[in-house]
Amino acid sequence: MTDIHLQPALSLPAGFRFGEVSSFTAPRALASAVPTLGPLSAFTGAFRGSGFNTIFRPDSTKTPTGLPKPITGSDNVLELNLTLETLSFSPSLGSVPNRGTGQQGYIFLNGVPYLQTITDVTLPHQPIGIHFEPGLWMAVPGTTDPAEGATVVRMASIPHGTTIEAQGTSSTAAGRPTIPAVHITPFISTTIISISTQTTAPLTGGAPTTSPS
């Protein structure tokens, strides 16, 4: 597969800057302080790597998935993908005003735009995009009402109708994370456990594969 040149996927127009809009008509001095990015300061540049994706997804009788060995009576497909993934970060936004209400005054956020793309490369000479996600990582300072410490937020949008906002705390640790093995069966239920987690033959040709359990 031909190599690609990676570069930041999102860029701000020249001269664009976030800030608090003045209530007065006379020009005033602009604030020079930029809120900290905290742990997000490491989010710079562009990255590329290989991966593996597994997902149980719906299979409609109106538009059934073509399989080497057709399966009847199943409303789901276990799809496996060898992937090529890219993640690129743009320069930080700077000082982003967030209006307060009641006892909470204004706070100022900072954030990093990002773009994640995932391409199926099970057939190396026939790559096909399967995921496109523009979004923002935001650093939120502590507040007094409610009384919360500093947090980070991931705000993402996916073309087929999904947007997410995940907010929480952050921590640092030496070395890479320890990620335990997790079974891919999505639910532990007598009615759902029958979803296939076995294949009838080795995966070939990159096609999604499924079989009754």
Low-confidence stretches: 191-213
Put simply, the count of helices is 0
Structural class: mainly beta
pLDDT averaged over residues: 80
Largest sheet: 7 strands, antiparallel
Helix-strand pattern, N to C? EEEEEEEEE
Helix content class: under 10%
Let me know the number of strands: 9
Strand content: 35-45%
Rg estimate, integer Å: 23 Å
Q: For the terminal residues, how far apart are their CA atoms?
A: 36 Å
Looking at the structure, what is the overall shape?
elongated
What does this structure look like?
By secondary structure, the protein is an all-beta fold. It has a domain at 38-168. The protein has no helices and nine strands. The strands form two sheets. Strands 1, 2, 3, 4, 5, 8 and 9 form a seven-stranded antiparallel sheet that branches. Strands 6-7 form a two-stranded antiparallel sheet. The radius of gyration is 23 Å and the shape is elongated. The chain starts with 45 loop residues before the first strand and ends in a 45-residue tail after the last strand.
In short:
With 213 residues, the chain is mainly beta. It has a domain at 38-168. It contains no helices and nine strands.
For the structure shown, list the relevant keywords.
213 residues, mainly beta, disordered C terminus, 9 strands
Fold blueprint:
Elements: E1 46-58, E2 76-89, E3 96-98, E4 107-120, E5 128-140, E6 143-144, E7 147-148, E8 151-158, E9 162-168
Antiparallel strand pairs: 1-2, 2-4, 3-4, 4-5, 5-8, 6-7, 8-9
